[in-house]
Amino acid sequence: MVSREIDIDTEHTVRRALRLALARSPEGLDLDLAGVGFCDCAGLNVLLSVRRIALAEGKALGVRAASAGVERLFALTDASSLFSHAPGLTAADGAVDTWHEHSPTTHDLMEENDVSDEAEELRVEVVQLKRAMLTRPVIDLARGVLMASFGLSPDDAWNVLVDVSQHTNTKLHQLAEDLVDSVNGAPLPEPLQQRISTEVAEISRPA
User: Fold this and answer.
1) Does pLDDT of 100 surpass 60?
2) How many angstroms separate the CA atoms of 158 and 146, rounded?
3) CA dist., res. 124 & res. 130, Å (int)
4) For residues 99 and 92, what is the distance between their CA atoms, to the nearest angstrom?
5) What's the rounded Cα separation, in Å, for the pair 80 and 115?
6) What is the pTM of this model?
7) Are 31 and 64 contacting, i.e. CB atoms less than 8 angstroms apart?
8) Which terminus of the chain, N or C, has fewer Cβ atoms within 10 Å?
9) Is the pLDDT reported for residue 109 higher than 50?
10) To the nearest 5 percent, what fractions of the chain are helix, strand and coil?
């Protein structure tokens, strides 16, 4: 069972673990993501990339259980069908103790669906586009807030967002949501306020 987070900070570790488990599995992997507290676009990209490797090797990658957060991400990006779990599969202990192998049933079902390589690539592209659309609008709004509040250029507003995100260890989309919410009266956390002020002062300083 996978727990904690699958995001930009853990994507490389999770990808390595999945690829190792996949290499040791004759048929593929059946994942239990019920314990994942957070999964962002980076986490979804890991699952998509490992799934493509599995398909190229004649294997499958399914999800037999998912947390509410993972289910919401799958629903918003229309990715649920890409990780469908065949009923009745028996999960066995895999090479990595947080992942599980599954039987040939899922792979057989995918063969019956006769999904071509071209169609598969198109579906993945659609998922990636939808994923980008989820976060882009709020980030653009946050840039607009900074531009209007501090008279910044679009590039400077973007740089402030990125720098604040990195220095406060806040995910970019969460920072953007907090900024947009603050316009509607929600309090902006003090550390974010201070860092934004610092970054704006730094970027506005004459060269």
Assistant:
1) no
2) 9
3) 10
4) 9
5) 16
6) 0.46
7) yes
8) C
9) no
10) 60, 15, 25
What is the amino acid identity at position 177?
A: E
Q: How far apart are CA 199 and CA 159, in angstroms?
A: 9
Q: ∠ at Cα 67 (120, 121), nearest 5°?
A: 10
Q: Please state the length of the chain.
A: 207
pLDDT in tens, 5-39: 887 778 888 888 888 888 888 888 888 888 888 88
Q: Which amino acid is at 49?
A: S
Structure tokens at 21: 């488990």
Residue 112 burial class via C-beta count within 10 angstroms: exposed 0-12, middle 13-18, buried 19 and up:
exposed
**Helices assigned H by DSSP within 66-188:** 68-77, 105-113, 117-150, 154-168, 172-183
Residue for token digits 């740089």?
159
Compare 194 and 172 and report the one with higher pLDDT: 194
Average per-residue pLDDT for the chain? 75
